[in-house]
Amino acid sequence: MSTRPKSIAVIVVAAGKGERAQGGDNPTPKQYRTIARRAVLARTIDAFLALDTITQILPVIHPDHADHYAGLRFNDARVLPPVHGSTTRQASVLEGLKAVAPSRPDLVLIQDAARPFSSPQVIGDVIAVLAQYDGALPTVPLTDTIKRSLDGREVVATEDRRQLSAAQTPQGFRFAQIFSAHMRAGSVRREFTDDAEIAEWAGLRVAMVMGDRDNIKITHPEDFLRAERILLGDHAMETRVGTGFDVHSFEPGDAVWLGGVRIEHTAKLNGHSDSDVALHALTDAILGAIGEGDIGIHFPPSDMQWKGAASTIFLKHAGDLVAKRGGRIVNLDVTIVCEAPRIAKHVPAMCTVISQTLGIKPDRVAIKATTSERLGFTGREEGIVAMASASVEVPRDE
Fold first, then answer.
1. Known binding positions for a divalent metal cation
2. Do 160 and 216 reside in the same domain of the chain?
3. What percent of the chain has pLDDT over 70?
4. Would you say residue 255 has pLDDT above 80?
5. Structural domain containing residue 182
6. Rounded to 10 degrees, what is the CA torsion of 186, 191, 195, 197?
7. Residues 243, 389: contact at Cβ < 8 Å?
8. Where are the transmembrane segments (predicted)?
9. How sure is the predictor about 297, in pLDDT bands with cuts at 50, 70 and 90?
10. Residue 2: inside a domain, yes or no?
């Protein structure tokens, strides 16, 4: 293929259950678990969206994971609606190939969903080699001595590691050839380990390019810790702290919203949204930590679309801005000052709402309540005050 490809499709294989990577207390499939508040699958797709040469991306997902996938957000039309995979990776890839076949792409890249760190260099090298070869894949040389055993116990041979490499993805191919090879492979009684093996079996010429040792495939629970270290290694982080303060007066009503929880009371809080003084202070604290002003800048009270709006919307927006910067929320602390209503029994529910809204663990959220000993306007039960602090980690500017 001597001319530059007009279209490059990417098939992201995400149809597995990811059971080996599930921790004892986390049943979420590995491709939907988060690394620094971004799902593994989303990070994998983001790596290809960063390249203008990619024309379409098709996720192939498990039929039971539609709700998980719906929680991901992509603001790019190149990400096509997902298709359902099958019981094996090989069959799932074929479903993806069939789905993109009507668009007749020149090239196709086949990517494991659990490899979120495929670099532009590796992806670009795979694409470039397809000008001379039918297929290409990134590999890394083996550094450990490799032993062969027939029973998993007794060594029968030592392999020459100089001739061996570990395969990674994306694996790239000229579309028509790999589609034909997959169609033929589906009719034989053999399970191929990857798409390059199918290409080899079909007689296609497959080349290797240098892979990246950080291009790991998340397989086991401990791989998430390594993934976090890769991100932290790529971006030296710094800690920032923001504070927030908010006050709302009472008006006639029968309940107040505090920390995202509705609490019955003899009055309600006066304000444009749901007047959740705790979440307003918390939102301002997060925005302050990243230098993004205050809640009024992002959600002006003059804008009628926010009249009566749930303040969790404002909080999530602040959390998303942290994630967009490649940061993470370390911990949050809120103090609510009022004589009534009583807050203590509602604190666990508030922590749950806040942690779920921001995608962090509940133990990173602290909520405390106190009175002003009957002093001032809070002591006269004219309103409620909330103060908050937020600690976040973001990449250093330099």
1. 246, 248, 280
2. yes
3. 95
4. yes
5. 8-234
6. -110
7. yes
8. none
9. very high
10. no
